[in-house]
């Protein structure tokens, strides 16, 4: 079997596995099996929930626990199946157990014209073992993983063309399973008419007769109807479930910056005047407590007017540098041939601008 013809899981699921798309698919549901005459003859239950799978060596992996069970009566013969599996968030099957049964008991079979004779059955147990390499199972979607894939496709309301995966047939042999979109239909659930999205899954073994199932989903991935092609029974949901709504993350609101007309606002303008008077009073009080401030500023202005430098900022930095509290200790008098760090910084700043 050529694996290059298969659509890989990463292509079909695009952004999967991802919690944002798989989380809404974790729920339980149940359907009733109805015969052609409309009589209930069985039921189907499916549940998917988060779980933790313990691998060999004690390592644990977050995954999904998938359970499915069906019971029915066909021609007065009870039968059913159960499925339990651990599916990784990449939709890989970590472990799966599947069990099918048919309860056949001894009964009387009339043979005319002879009297009824008892028919006895003997139990015979057969065991078969199959093994495959990991490379040959690349792209395998088991029966349990198929339930998740169908729910995701149902929520997307679309199936990529030529969607084909590896699967197991009834004899546990590797085969292909194709998924095809059948469009939208109307279905009556209870007293409510709803729109359903139909997907067909066909399992095509290399030897034997292909089997196909048609699934009809509600908008949130709940199964509304399941039909096995060629079977007289149909799985139906009798009551419309509560649809799962995914809360969309709303973008954070953006508030435009409005101009503040504080001069026209009486309260803001009053606060401005109060703060202005407070600052002026604080400055005047500081100047009275430090009379040397006036003398220092007078010396600076006098020297500034005498020198008339082109770069007033650099001149001011050099003048007040000796008064800096974090100035490193050194000579009070600067040598005439020593480069000023303020002028070098001023040149770098000019180049930057």
From TrEMBL:
Q: Which UniProt keywords apply?
A: Cell membrane, Cilium biogenesis/degradation, Cytoplasm, Cytoskeleton, Membrane, Nucleus
**GO BP annotations listed:** actin filament polymerization; cilium organization
Give a Gene Ontology cellular component term annotated to this protein: plasma membrane
Q: Name one Pfam family in it.
A: CATIP_N
Q: Where does this protein reside within or beyond the cell?
A: Cell membrane; Cytoplasm, Cytoskeleton; Nucleus
Record-annotated Ciliogenesis-associated TTC17-interacting protein N-terminal domain positions: 19-106, 121-232
Q: Which InterPro entries match?
A: CATIP_N (IPR048777)
Coiled-coil ranges (or none): none
Query: Which purpose does this protein serve, as stated in its record?
Result: Plays a role in primary ciliogenesis by modulating actin polymerization.
Protein family per UniProt: Belongs to the CATIP family.
State what protein this is by name.
Ciliogenesis-associated TTC17-interacting protein
């Amino acid at each position: 079997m050529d694996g290059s013809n298969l659509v890989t899981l990463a292509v079909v699921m695009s952004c999967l596995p991802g919690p944002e798309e798989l989380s809404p698919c974790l729920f339980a549901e149940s359907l009733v099996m109805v015969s052609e005459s409309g009589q209930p003859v069985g039921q189907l239950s499916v549940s998917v929930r988060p779980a933790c799978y313990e691998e060999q060596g004690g390592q644990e992996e977050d995954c999904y626990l998938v359970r499915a069970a069906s019971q029915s009566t066909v021609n007065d013969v009870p039968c059913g199946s159960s499925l339990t599996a651990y599916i990784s968030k990449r939709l890989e099957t970590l472990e799966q157990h599947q069990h099918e049964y048919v309860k056949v008991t001894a009964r009387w079979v009339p043979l005319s014209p002879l009297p009824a004779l008892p028919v006895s059955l003997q139990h015979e147990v057969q065991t078969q073992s199959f093994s495959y390499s990991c490379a040959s199972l690349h792209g395998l979607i088991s029966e349990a993983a198929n339930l998740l894939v169908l729910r995701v496709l149902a929520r997307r309301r679309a199936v990529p063309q030529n969607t084909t995966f590896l699967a197991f047939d009834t004899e546990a042999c590797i085969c292909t399973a194709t998924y095809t979109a059948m469009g939208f239909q109307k279905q009556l659930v209870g007293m409510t008419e709803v729109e359903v999205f139909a997907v067909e899954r066909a399992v095509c073994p290399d030897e034997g007769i292909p089997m196909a199932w048609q699934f009809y989903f509600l908008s949130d991935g709940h199964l509304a109807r399941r039909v096995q092609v060629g079977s007289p029974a149909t799985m139906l949901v009798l009551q419309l479930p509560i649809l799962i709504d995914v809360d969309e993350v709303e973008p954070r609101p953006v508030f435009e910056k409005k101009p503040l007309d504080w001069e026209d606002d009486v309260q803001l303008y009053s606060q401005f005047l109060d703060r202005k008077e407070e600052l002026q009073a604080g400055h005047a009080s500081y100047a009275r407590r430090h009379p040397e401030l006036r003398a220092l500023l007078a010396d600076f202005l006098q020297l500034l007017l005498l020198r008339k430098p082109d770069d007033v900022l650099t001149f001011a930095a050099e003048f007040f540098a000796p008064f800096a509290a974090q100035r490193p200790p050194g000579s009070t008098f600067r040598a005439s041939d020593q480069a000023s760090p303020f002028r070098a910084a001023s040149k770098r700043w000019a180049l930057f601008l």
